[in-house]
Every structure is written in C-alpha cells, then in structure tokens.
Amino acid sequence: MQALLTEILDQVRPLIGQGKVADYIPALADVPANQLGIAVYSNDGELYCAGDAHTPFSVQSISKVFSLVQAIEHSGEDIWQRLGHEPSGQPFNSLVQLEFERGKPRNPFINAGALVICDINQSRFAAPVLSMRDFVRRLAGNPQIVVDRRVAESEYQHRARNAAAAYLMQSFGNFHNDVEAVLRSYFSYCALRMSCADLARAFCFLANDGFCKHSGQQILSARQSKQVNAIMATSGLYDEAGNFAYRVGLPGKSGVGGGIIAVVPGQFSVCVWSPELNAAGNSLAGIKALELLSERIGWSVF
Amino acid sequence: MQALLTEILDQVRPLIGQGKVADYIPALADVPANQLGIAVYSNDGELYCAGDAHTPFSVQSISKVFSLVQAIEHSGEDIWQRLGHEPSGQPFNSLVQLEFERGKPRNPFINAGALVICDINQSRFAAPVLSMRDFVRRLAGNPQIVVDRRVAESEYQHRARNAAAAYLMQSFGNFHNDVEAVLRSYFSYCALRMSCADLARAFCFLANDGFCKHSGQQILSARQSKQVNAIMATSGLYDEAGNFAYRVGLPGKSGVGGGIIAVVPGQFSVCVWSPELNAAGNSLAGIKALELLSERIGWSVF
Amino acid sequence: MQALLTEILDQVRPLIGQGKVADYIPALADVPANQLGIAVYSNDGELYCAGDAHTPFSVQSISKVFSLVQAIEHSGEDIWQRLGHEPSGQPFNSLVQLEFERGKPRNPFINAGALVICDINQSRFAAPVLSMRDFVRRLAGNPQIVVDRRVAESEYQHRARNAAAAYLMQSFGNFHNDVEAVLRSYFSYCALRMSCADLARAFCFLANDGFCKHSGQQILSARQSKQVNAIMATSGLYDEAGNFAYRVGLPGKSGVGGGIIAVVPGQFSVCVWSPELNAAGNSLAGIKALELLSERIGWSVF
Amino acid sequence: MQALLTEILDQVRPLIGQGKVADYIPALADVPANQLGIAVYSNDGELYCAGDAHTPFSVQSISKVFSLVQAIEHSGEDIWQRLGHEPSGQPFNSLVQLEFERGKPRNPFINAGALVICDINQSRFAAPVLSMRDFVRRLAGNPQIVVDRRVAESEYQHRARNAAAAYLMQSFGNFHNDVEAVLRSYFSYCALRMSCADLARAFCFLANDGFCKHSGQQILSARQSKQVNAIMATSGLYDEAGNFAYRVGLPGKSGVGGGIIAVVPGQFSVCVWSPELNAAGNSLAGIKALELLSERIGWSVF
C-alpha cells in the first residue's frame, strides 16, 4: 500500500499548476500550491502515508461531516425536519433553491444545510466550537488539533454570502440562533487545521459501521454510519458529486482547502490533499489520486 | 432467500392502498393496484421469486437504463459530450435547468437526458425499437418480451411535456433526429412489458462487472458497469435519489409502472414491483421492500 | 414635422453598423442593413414620412399586437383566463417562468403569450391567416399587404424553441389546437410585409381611443384601446420595456425585423424601421430615433 | 372634484373586509382596517380631500420613491451602474433573480433595489435619516412629519429577508456600507408617517415636470421627472404593475401600509389609503378607487 500511495502521488504530481488555489480569503491564498499528501487508514488500524500527509491544512467543508455527525449523535432523525438529504443540483452557495423550497436546504453539505446543522448544534452546546474541537481531537486521536483563528476571522470578514443564506432561512423560520453567532461557529469549524493522517484517522468510523477503533467508541450506529456515507455519495462533492461517483465510486467529502476524504466501507478511510482546485472547487490532483486508487485496487462501492 | 422474500412481501403488503397508481395515461391507470412481486437473481445464476414475480408490467423509466447501456456499448464516452452524469435536483420532466444549461441534460435518467440517449441510438440503428427489443430479450433470456403498442400509442398521445423537452434541446442544437420519430422510439422503450424475473435477470450484468452469465456476453466493461451503477446511485430515483441512497443504499432505477430494479454489486440484481406510487413517483411498497432487504441482509453498498 | 423626421434620421444614421441584423433565419439575414425609415400618422389623418418609409419589411413581433387586438375584438376579457398582462422579467422565449407558472404566459408579447393568443384565434377563424391578413389590410388601408411565404417557411423550419413553448403549454392544458397548425399561423403573422407608412396607419386607432378614422371603424372600445397601450407600455419591448419607458415614454412594440411602432395617445401613431438590432433584440437606431422625437416634441406620456 | 372623491370612496367602501391588513409586524397589524382616505392635489395648487385624508399612516414602500428621487438629485445617472430600471417579474423580496443577475437589482422599487438606493444615499449623507425626513417635510410642506420609531424598530426585528438581500448584494460587491446601518435607515424611511394630503402634496412635482410649486423648488429636471414616472409605471406595484397600468393607466407606487400614490402628468398627484391589501400586497380599495377615478375623468396616460 505504501508503495502504491507513493506511486500514485508521482502520477498525479504533474497536475500541479493546472488548478487554482482558493483565493477568496487571503489566509487560504497563501498556501503553497505544490503540496501533496495522502493517508490511508485501515479498519485494522494501520496508517499508510505518502507525501505531505502530516502537514496540517484548513479542512474547510470537510468539517461539514463532523458537524453532521455531531448533530446526528445528539438529535438523531429529528434533524431531517429542518433539511433534506437530496442532492441539490445547484452551486454550493446558491440561494435560488433555498428560496423556492422555503428555507429548507437540500442537504447538510451545501452551505445552507451546514449552517442549519450548525444552528442545531449551537442550540445544543454551551460552547459549540470547543465541543467540536474536542470531538474532532478525540476522533483523530490528536490533542494538538486547533482552530486557525486567523482563517476563521478572515472567513467571517467575507461572510456575506453565508450571511445571506442564514438570514434567508431565518426569514422562513428555519434558523433559531443569532445569525452572527452561528456564522462565527461555522467559520471556526471550517478553520480546523488537520493533516491527511488526522483526517484519515478521524473518519475511520465511517468505514467501520460507526465504530472508532483507536478511541474504542461507537460514534454512530452502523445504520447511521451507512446513512452518512450515502449522503456523502450523493452530495459530498458540490456540483461534481455525480462525477465523483462515476470516476471514483466512493462516498467522499471535499473542502476548498484542497482536502478530500473518502470512505471504503468495511475497509479503509482515506484522505488526500493538494491545494489547487478544479472549476468545481474540488482538489484537482486529489480527485485524480482517488480515481487511480479506485481503479488500481478496485475500491469502488459499485 | 425465498422465505425472506415472501416474508418481506408480507410485511409491505399493508402499504397497498396508501399510494396511487400512475394515471396520466389510461393504459397505466387500469393496472390492478394490489399486485406485488419480487425477484432476486444471484451472480451464480439462482433466481428467487415471490408474489407476482412473473407477471409482466410496463417497465417505463427502467428502460432508460437499457437505452443508456446500448448507447455506451456503441458510442462509449462520447455520449458525455451531449449530457451529464450529475443529479439534477429538479423534477424528472422540468425544463428549467435544461434552459439554463443550454439544452444539455443533467443525466440520462431524467426525461430530457433519456431523450438525448434515444436520439443518439436513433442515429445508430436502422430499426431502433427492434434493436432495443432484441437487446432486452437477450439480456433477460426471454424471447417473449414485447412492446405494448397500446401503451406506447397512449404515451405518444400525451407526449406534450416530452415533446417540449426535445424541441427545447433541438433549439440548442442538441437533438439531431426528427423529434416525433425519436419520441415514438422513446415511448416504445417505456412500453416494454417485463416481469420482475425478466428484469432481475436482465440487469444481472451490472452486479457482475458487466458480464451476463446466462448469455455468456460481456455487455459492458467492468469499469463501465460500475459507472452505470454510479449514475443510478446518484440519479436513479428522480427527486428521491438521495433518500433511496439513505434508506436502501443501492444503485437503483424506478419506473412509474411501479417497478424498481436495484443492484448489489458482486452479488445480486433485484426487481420489485407494486403499482402504487409515492409522491415522488416511485413504488411505495417497492422502496419499503428494498429497504427491508437492505437492512435484513446488509446489502447497502455503504 | 416632415423636416424634423428627416433631421432625426440624419442624427441616428451614424448608428448603422453598430447593431446586428437578425440572422436566426436566412430570409432575415439577407435584409440590407443600411435601410432607415420613419412614418408618423396624426389623428387628423396626416401622414409624415422620411427615409425608407415606404419599403415593406418583415413585421415579426409587431404582429403580436394585431393578434391581440383580433383576440380582444372577438373574445374580450375572456382571454385573460389563459394569459396575463404583467411584464415577465425574462427573455422573450424563456420557458422557465412558463413552467413555474404552470403554462400560463405572463403577457401577450412574449412568444408563449402570443402563441396562446394565436391558439385562441385559431379556434375562432376558419382561415386564421387570411382573416389576419384581411384585418391588417383594412387597418392599414392597403390591399397589397402580403405574407412572405419564404420567411414564414424558414421560421417554421427553425420553430424548435416556439414548438417547445407550445408543447409545454399543451402539457398544462393551455393549448387547444394542433401545435404544428398554430405554429404555421403564428409564423405567417410574423412574416407579414408592411412599410413604416402601413404600420403607422394600421396602429392609428390606438392613438385615437380605438377608432380608425380612414376605415371609419371602431376597432376597439376606448377602454380596450387604452388597455392595449398599457400592455405595450409595460411589456412591449422584451427585456427592455422598462428602458424604453425610461428613455422614450411611449407604449410601443418592436419586432426583430427592425421595426418599432409607438403610440402617442390622442395624437399620433409612429413607426420607425432600421434592421440592425441592439443586444436586447430591438432596433438600435429605431429606439434612438423615438427617443429624440420624444425629447424634441415632448411626446412622453409621463 | 370634491364630490367625485366622496362618491368614489362610497363606492369602494364595501370592499373593506375583503382584504387583509399587513401583519408581518405587530405595529402594522394594529391599524384599524376601516379607514379610507383620498387626496388629490392639482398642479395649480388646489387640494381636494375625502375620508380620512388627514390621518397619518405608515408610508412603507412609497418611501422608495423619495429615496430614488434623493439619489437622482445628488448622484444622477450614475446610480444605474448599480441597479436597473426594468420590471422584475418576481415577488418584491425574491433573491432568485438577484443571484442570477449577480447582485444587481432590477429596479429601485423592489426591496433589493431600494436597499441599493439607500446604500447610495448612506454614502452621501452624514445623517441619512434626518436628511430624508427633512427632504420629505419640505416636499410635503409639513414640518410635523416624523419617523415612527416603534414601526422602524419592529421592522428591524423582522429584517431577515431584507438582510439576506443586502448580504447577497454585498457578496457581489454591490453594497458598500455596513448592512445593519443601511437596514436601520431603510426601515426608518419606511416608517415615515404621512397622510394622504401630505403624500399628494409631496409628489406634486412629478405631475409638474419636476417643479414643486408650494416650495418653489425644481426637485428634478423635467426629463428626470418623466423618468421616475416611467419607472413607477413599469415597476411601481410589485407583481401587479402590469395590471395597474391595465386598469388605472397611471404611474404609481404602493406601500404595505395601504397607501398608493399616483401621478397624472401635467395635472394632478393623488394619494389613496385603505389598509387592507389584496393578494399582491396592494391596497384593495385603493386600486379600485384609482380605477374609478381614471375611468370617470379619463386620467389614464394611455
């Protein structure tokens, strides 16, 4: 596996230079484009790494999975009163569908849906950001994981589109806490800094029927774990969810920091990272690396 | 398996009466609502049946998978110049997205996409309907399969919405043959009459890396077979694709005749049939039966 | 007036070369771009002409006013069961709003609305095209007016977008006659060939409370005449209706043949013609000429 | 005129009870529904009143005309870089079009457009609300006019939809000041309390080529005055602008407080008030009263 990962990174490295690092906030635009890492964590607890697998980066929308898992943990099926689990067919930050569907977001992985999930968690936790940070540290088995305050603040300064979504939902009665406070939490989650190794470990429970071996905790029931994977499979990669299923065939979730996590149910969790994005906002080299892995070792769930 | 299927049908039978048989054409409205059947076909060639598994019904949109497979067989990746493989997030017959995206349908399982696929096949075959019928007979191993001319004609009489989609695509240069002729073919495919047993057999190649054991033919490559499954997983059940993944966790395709086929990669193909539909246009008892099967024997791909 | 018209044409002539002749059908693309004419017809029966005011051209969408007037004449307020009289805020040939509003077009001057009006007239007249031609001849006082068969046929060959609109309305039950037959009539109306002088005369009744002095006929009631002007004022120039009101301040209707008619209630009807169009599909020099006229002799209704 | 106004109020009074007082904020829901007033102000300075013409009410969206006039006064044509003057064809508070058109509102009379105008004025004035109040006092010749702080505060508490619009525009770079500050100003303008008599007087300059006789000031140029009227004619009554032109035939602007102002260019300004609204959010009895006036004394501009 180790050799394979190294080989795959070598194969996709030439793609660097063909994508574009996210630049909507300065703190992300600064990230050196030539970084590339991958980590695979097996259900029996082996970690395989290659490239910059131990360099922390901004997880961004990958945090939407953590938020969803936290919400399912404490609120269960009730959350589906407030959002759906259908693919949206619209850009991740579009308000069009949200207005037509009267403030109920399509799924937890578009921004509006993630904001509702944060609103749910905000109602639940006295200190939502700390709760999340500790939850993620526990999942990853790494007490060093932190929120990058500079990134969170910078995102907050550029909050306009997300604020619009939150206020639109509030106008339909589907937002319960103070908008600004929830946005602060939301951007803090996005600003978590984790490495490929951290993320592969943190998501291993989704490959293992909800059980996190290294912490010894049942994070979700087997059924809930499958459900989260199902939502990732249909809605995890923005406008490119269909293409990711077509090319890679795994449940996955991407972030504009250039990370992508994917799950091979029953076997592995994997995280790949390369900061340059394709036109759909997903890591260009990252998707290619996962496609090669899927082809080479038959990982597709289909 | 046999016993399990019977048990599951017994469990879902109480749902009959809670849905609504498709009634947009008289020929479908006539179908007795209390029919219920299921067939499972294993990769090693065993067929398990329960209920009305041998009663032929109108396959309707399930035929969109046959058309897609035919198109991939002879035109390969080229077809993706003309349509996408992303979920649409819109009703199956909506023209809104089609206009915004300049006549390029999102995927082959919404009506517009299926019409483009039929247009591609129409350019290829001298007698497209016969070619399709023979292809399906071969896949199902049943030379008795026919197109129900009365249903096809009735659908043609009610073609307005599909005609609008086809002309809209023509206005964008994405429709090459005579609209009326392609619509005739399209409705003929929808009007194929097949039983659960026929359909389970016909789709076994998608559970078997593209190989159809009983005919001894490699219908698609392993990779293509996974790709078709991926498209079914993200877009196979209209507006309910996400929910189907969430509840059942299998690639599948439904039709308004009340049939649903699903694929357990590496193991089984399955077809369930009950004519009453839910609000999203999918068989009410059918989805429930697949959900129970998925729970009972851990069929979810996730 | 004569001198003023000549002066205004001289002022706008330099715009020729900055627009684009409609080229979606060959028969229109052929029209020499350097033609420019204007005709003003006063309520006391004086005709003032300048430039190519007597050269016939393809009236195109200006015919939508004739169709509407015919429909009001024989069906009165009933027509508003089937379409609205609100501005659409969408391109003239968009299907998006039509689908959202379940097949009821916003107004009679977008294509879908004009098609419904033609459908209404089709139900009424045994020979709709002849009836229309004779109606227009009578209004213009010119028995030489003809339908250009070559243009009508060419438009029919490129009917896809309009066919899509008609079938979409049929799918909502808002289209009663054979789609192809109504499209034939519709394109025949668009293909009427009339000069500026013909059109200024033909529309004089709208400046005169519904009364056509030269034919001695009350075409519409005073109230109906105002209503038609009101619809032209809010919806007569496609996406540019607001801008036309802002710059010119008159009820008007344009066609892609480069003609624009406008009405100065109580005083004049006017027609200007220059084949080159602006980005919104309205005659570039034509709008400028009307703006100058409006400024110079205070014609704005506002 | 006096007698006519009284007669018309008697004719429309039976409509009271068939509409619905705006109730999205408590401060408006409290207004007694059975009030009804009208005031007509002639270009030669005569004021004709009937009913509750001297009772102040919440002008709400009628203030959008004041804001627009203020913006034109000091910023001229430049404002059209930031918004259009086309009818929108969408509900007054919709974000759909705003997103498609990248944050540039269609016109100054939908909420998004009025917010941009307020943003422009906010950049210009040190104390925007005081400037507006004084401007309105001067126009109406009434130094008693005040902002109802309770209404403004209540609207601010229910700002979610307008906040969403403002943030969405900010995300496209079309909002320059602090969103919350501009919303405060915007709601203060809406909360101006004026009577029919105040409003008829305040808008007389639009009937008089921009000149306000009682203050002796040229508020706008004649051309600008016509332009404002043109925008009211195509976009002044929300989704019902076309219907208002069709039935009444005058430039006008309504507010959810139940007021409607209209302009008879060259002759009169008029204000009618009745708190109950129709389904489109316009005063039910108010529109009917204006329709009767228009019919009875031939006021339509068409």
Compile the SSE list and pairings:
The structure is a homotetramer of 302-residue chains.
Chain A: H1 2-12, E1 20-21, H2 26-29, E2 37-42, E3 47-51, E4 57-58, H3 63-75, H4 96-100, H5 111-124, H6 128-140, E5 146-147, H7 149-157, H8 160-171, H9 179-190, E6 192-194, H10 196-202, E7 211-212, E8 217-218, H11 222-235, H12 241-247, E9 252-254, E10 259-264, E11 268-273, E12 276-277, H13 284-297
Antiparallel strand pairs in A: 1-12, 2-3, 2-11, 4-6, 5-6, 7-8, 9-10, 10-11
Helix pairs in contact in A: 1-13, 3-5, 5-8, 5-9, 6-9, 6-10, 7-9, 11-12
Polypeptide structure, described:
Chains A, B, C, D: Its EC number is 3.5.1.2. Chain A is an alpha+beta fold and 302 residues long. The first copy, chain A, has a single domain, classed as DD-peptidase/beta-lactamase superfamily (Beta-lactamase). The first copy, chain A, has 13 helices and twelve strands. In chain A, a hairpin with a 4-residue loop joins strand 9 and strand 10. Chain A is globular, with a radius of gyration of 18 Å. The model of chain A has no long low-confidence stretch (mean pLDDT 96). Chains A and B meet through helix 11 and helix 12 of A and helix 11 and helix 12 of B.
CATH class of chain A: Alpha Beta
Which fold does the CATH topology of chain A refer to? Beta-lactamase
Assigned CATH superfamily of chain A = DD-peptidase/beta-lactamase superfamily
Largest interface: A-B, 35 and 35 residues
Query: Mean pLDDT of chain A, as a whole number?
Result: 96
Strand content of chain A is 5-15%
Number of domains of chain A: 1
CATH architecture descriptor name of chain A:
3-Layer(aba) Sandwich
Q: What's the oligomerization state?
A: homotetramer
Kindly state the percentage of residues in helix of chain A.
Answer: 40-55%
Q: What count of helical segments of chain A does DSSP give?
A: 13
Structural class label of chain A? alpha+beta
Question: Which runs of chain A of at least 5 residues are low in confidence (pLDDT < 50)?
Answer: none
Distance between the termini of chain A: 22 Å
